[in-house]
Amino acid sequence: MPDAERPHRAAPSRRAGSQVLVALLVGGLAFAVTVQVRQDDATDYGSLRGVELVELLKSVDVANERLAGQIDELTATRDRLRASRGDAAEAEDVARQRAEELAVLAGSVGATGPGVRLTVSDPDGLVDAGLVLDVLQELREAGAEAIVVNDTARVVAQTYVLDDEQGLRIGGRQVSSPYVFDVIGDPSTLEESITFRGGVRDLLQARGAQAAVDRRSTITITALADVRTPEYARPDVGTP
Amino acid sequence: MIPVIGLVVGVGLGLFLQPDVPLWLQPYLPIAIVAALDAVVGALRALGERRFDDRVFVVSFISNVTIAGFMVFLGDQLGVGSQLSTGVVVVLGIRIFANAAAIRRRIFHA
């Protein structure tokens, strides 16, 4: 042990000298510690030995390999997710478009487009359900896509026509003369279907009713049909 | 008192100058610091036991640093530099702990 072990007393002048020497050594140590601590902050591989560098290189290589594997894995996952999201979005678009088309046919949304307005005035009250049904059938045959009568009765697949004391009942809604059919479809075909000789207009006139057909570039239908959830019928999709 | 001034001046110089450790000194400096710390802690213990001697401290300080540096150098030459450095640090660490324990016993009687 080279530590201080013997009591030692010396002359004051020599004591001061050694104190300075001790101070120098302590100061040098403090200086070295400060420098070394600061040195360690900067990652410097200059002080490492060859073996350590090889070890470091090996561990960096392994980490690199592992991270590259992770990158491949995550990239594949990302691509898969992106692709599936694209598919889902496409399917959703198609489904939404189909739902909108079906909604127009089912009468659960409003509709707008070119068409005709057929006005039937029936002063004698001789137009009955059968005749109105004929009109509707004729219009459907001419490719009518959306029909509304008097802006209240939307005509869809389930719509029925009944005679009533006050006039007619179309799909549960009371309508009375004059009957105004707003029809969306090809205007010329629709007009033809009403006005051809021996057709609907002639039938109506035979009952003393006046029928006027009016082409419109835009017909807007806001009336909605009562949408009923099927109680008995279930969709039968793809079951052999 | 003067050593304390030396301590403060040393830290101040290190912070102020911020020199880079020369490449040839880099393997030796950390070991030298630990060796010097051993000498300083030993001196503190002797101071507490009222048998501190400047001369012994100076000699032990310089010899500790020199021997530690020499051992690192020797280890590098023999190809066991890192192992020998670890060994030196462990031995010096044990000595520092022993001295610190003596100081602690003296101050706290525990």
Query: Which parts of chain A are unreliable, with pLDDT below 50 for 5 consecutive residues or more?
Result: 1-8
Strand arrangement in the largest pleated sheet of chain A: 3-2-7-1-8
Helix content of chain B: over 70%
How much helicity do the residues of chain A have? 40-55%
Which residues of chain B sit in consecutive blocks of at least 5 with pLDDT less than 50?
none
Q: Describe the biggest sheet of chain A?
A: 5 strands, antiparallel
Structural class based on helices, strands and sheet pairing of chain B: mainly alpha
Number of helices of chain B: 4
Shape of chain B: globular
- How far apart, in Å, are the first and last alpha carbons of chain A? 99 Å
Number of strands of chain B: 0
Structural class of chain A: alpha+beta
Q: Please give the radius of gyration of chain B in angstroms.
A: 16 Å
DSSP strand (E) fraction of chain B?
A: under 5%
Distance between the termini of chain B: 28 Å
* DSSP strand tally of chain A: 8
What's the CATH first level of the domain at 111-221 in chain A? Alpha Beta
Question: How many domain units of chain B?
Answer: 1
Report on the biggest sheet of chain B. none
Description:
Chain B: It is found in: Cell membrane. The complex is a heterodimer of chains A (240) and B (110). Chain A has helices spanning 12-41, 50-106, 129-141, 187-195, 200-206; strands at residues 111-121, 146-149, 153-155, 161-163, 168-170, 173-175, 179-184, 210-221. Chain A has 240 residues and is α+β, with helices and mostly antiparallel strands. Chain A has a five-stranded antiparallel sheet. A three-stranded antiparallel sheet of chain A has the order 4-5-6, covered by helices on one side. Chain A is rod-shaped and about 145 Å long. Chain A starts with 11 loop residues before the first helix and ends in a 19-residue tail after the last strand. The two termini of chain B are 28 Å apart. The model of chain B has no long low-confidence stretch (mean pLDDT 87). Chain B has four helices and no strands. Chain B is globular and about 45 Å long. The interface between A and B is large, with 38 and 51 residues.
